[in-house]
Amino acid sequence: MSKTLVIGANGQIGKQLVKLLCAENSPVKAMIRHSQQAPFFQDLGAETMITDLEAPLPDDAFADCDKVVFTAGSGGKTGADKTILIDLWGAVKAIDMAKKHNIKQFVMVSARDAGNPEAGTEAIKHYNICKHFADEYLLASGVP
Question: Which strand ranges, in their side-by-side order, compose the sheet holding 47-50?
Fold first, then answer.
């Protein structure tokens, strides 16, 4: 049975997705940043992987998965520096690992204005630009 790696599982979208997958008895690995987040996912029946997207991504996070959902984000209370490191560079590293491990499907949770980053508000322009280039990197990667 296929396993889904949810990167950014502790966020709003990630938590909902992991709950749904576990309710369907679909194998899921929740990639989270802090060990104190693990019991929530383990109680649902999900495997957990403690990983910081600012560090190199471990091979074992991807090795037994065939699907990846990238729903990680730096959060609205961080600056452009963290947005670049998580929303853009973290996504690029995840896409590269997905390619290395022949992932069959990669879903990128993006942003409404990522297609046209100039259309968004000035306050989140950096976020939309990071999402735009992460999306473009995925499209050019050859990863389905």
Answer: 47-50, 28-32, 4-7, 67-70, 105-108
> What span, in angstroms and rounded, lies between the C-alpha atoms of 22 and 31?
14
Active site residue 137: no
Return d(Cα 117, Cα 144) in angstroms, integer. 24
In whole angstroms, what is the distance from residue 42 CA to residue 74 CA?
A: 23
Least Cα distance to 14 among 52, 41, 34 occurs for 41
- Pure H helices in the chain: 12-23, 38-44, 59-62, 80-83, 91-100, 125-141
The tens digit of pLDDT for each residue in 85-144 reads 999 999 999 999 999 999 999 999 998 888 888 887 888 888 999 999 999 999 999 999
Which one is catalytic: 62, 70, 127, 133? 127
Contact 18, 9 (CB under 8 A): yes
- 3-class secondary structure, 4: strand
